[in-house]
Write a structure and sequence with these properties.
Distance between the termini: 154 Å
Helix content: 25-40%
Radius of gyration: 41 Å
Oligomer: single chain
Largest sheet: 6 strands, parallel
Shape: elongated
Number of helices: 10
Strand content: 25-35%
Amino acid sequence: MEGSGSALAARMKFRRVGLIILSALVVTAVCGLAVWNLLRPVSVVIDGTPRTVPARTTVSKLIEAGYVAEAGSLRSVKGNVITPGAGKPPVVRIHGVPAKSDSCVRNGDVIESERGEDITEPLANVEVPIPVTTVVEGTGPIVRVVPGSPGKAKLAIGIYTREVASTITVEPVRNTTILHSPPTSADKLVALTFDDGPWPGQTDKILDILAQKQVHATFFMVGTYVQKSPGLALRVAAEGNQIGNHTSGHPDLSKQPAAAIQSQLVGGQQAIENATGVHATAFRPPYRGVNATVRQQAAALGLSVVLWDVDTLDWSRPGVNRIVSNATANTGQRMVILMHDGGGDRSQTIAALPTIIDALAARGYTFVTVDELLSVQ
């Protein structure tokens, strides 16, 4: 009996151990399944595209991975991008509800995103002087010089780009004024004229030289080019230069019927007036193509036909020295010099212009516009 009791006790102990092991296995399996459910990848739809992402992925991780719309940019005060992605973060919604950056996505989530807003660089306020410029009135001998004084302005500028956002004048500048007497028939006068513009990259460089030398000129403009560069045409007028009509499309008018001539002249006038507000009074026929009909149509519009006394032949690109020589060879009392700012590469003309101005000034010439020249003849 004692042996049977020992065997029974052993069997009972074995069963208990088995039950314990089985329970442990069940617990391990359940926990493992739970852990697997927690760690397994989840399937979501982001902006209409199905994606599988790791478990416990947050909205910030989606942003870092580039799965959603990008952040906004940091822009300058003029709107140029300084740093992409340095603006506000994207707006992320899960099932239409805005989500926080630390929100975890879940299986089956429908996620939508919008690009973050751009931000503008901060501003700094600085005070700067307004330099004195010189204003020339008249073209004859100097009568009087009125000295000016600098002004002062406050600028709001971007702290990164230094671009100007706004300007407030604190003290207005008073420019120096050089007063000349009007030209007379006794003066040696020269009118510098430029055809076939306005031409970006060339007309503006010529204007820079004229402003530096304090000289005005006359620009005979083609209507179609005025329409393409109205701002450049406006600058020509704003800086005190004369604008003349060089037709709408630059044909040889001497080979055109009266109606076509009128259309070309009217088209040129309208283009100039629309861009600058200037009513041209001078007209230069392309290719020197003038006859009685051309003169008749020009006169009907109140236009003076203006040709030239000196042809620099700059259109043929003969070289800078040859252009200078052609421009300065004539020593007449009054001259109209033909050059070009458009119609092709005028880099030689631009390079020759300062020397031409200096050489004629040294000979005692006063630089005038075509209208000023015609007024003393």
